[in-house]
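Morning. Coffee machine broken again, so started the prediction first thing and wrote up yesterday's gels while waiting. Chain of 340 residues, entered below exactly as on the submission form.
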Amino acid sequence: MPWSGSGVYTRGYASWTSDASNGLPISATKFDTEDNDFAAGIQNCLTIDGQNKPNATLTWAQTLALTKGTDSTVFSIARTGGSNNPSLIWSVADSADTVTASLNTGNMALVFNPTLYTFGNTTDNPAMAFDTAGLTVNMSNVGGRVLTLNGCTAGQAVLGFQTATVPYGYLGTAGAVNQLIIGSGIGDLMFRSENKNILFSTNAGTTINAELTSAGAFEISDNAASPTLFNAGYMDAPQNNQNGNYSLVLSDRGKSLWHNSGSAHTYTIPANASVPFPSGTCIIVSNATGAGNLTIAITSDTLTWANNGSTGSRTLGPSGICVLYKQFATGWQITGPGLS
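Came back before lunch.
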């Protein structure tokens, strides 16, 4: 064979000049050998009219560049055999800097230009799929954007899935209220870019049922006609054991403070100006049997004893238990057995 298998062509007969110099006669056998090598070599070449086609994978040593001097088709891929025989045709429109992939029907399948990326057309309704078990975007919804990739200017979506009239999910601009919405309508699941990270709402988007705040707190709504969101609580009152002097912190909301020291200590409610516990905050304070007296003090706001309406610090004796309830911004109430 004239081809070496690695791209080198070797003549079957080395030198006619050498034969002539040595006075050797012309040989029909040598000519046949040479011509047969030429025929075998040419048979492994591609022809410009497409008669000789590759029958194995071609690996290009350099970049494959296909150019044509008009706005007509530059690159076309077609399948032969089968029932549909689809083809993919790439063309470049120089006047608009546009690259187009067309079906063999002549209709557009994919268009790239400086301002728009378009998939599908209303006649053929082609589908774009990534793996049969993965993502499929059906282009059959005539009149609506099924898949939209736009710029990030005000009011535009970056990624959208929608019917003719209702968005199913989109990414808004960086400054938009709603960053990502997924669901059967507006607002089933929303990821926002402002002070709320995740919102769960009704289909209509008018009522928020739950949210994850930017601070990482999960909030749920009450059952009012116009719900208000509140921090989600616990199934119990998680215990915070403090056997020394202690100043309450915001994370003590809804928890129980347990004092189990034989010495006397003070728990202090900080001023609303420094630690703004929400109104309605409840905190349980428990003093163990045999523990020292526990003073419940307040920094600059008002602590009212529910027993008789007096204000100021209270003492919780051994085996005593009380509840601290914040009535308003600077007003707390305390009640429970063992207080004095």
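Residues 130-136, 138-179, 182-188 have pLDDT under 50 and may be disordered. Going to sketch it on the whiteboard this afternoon.
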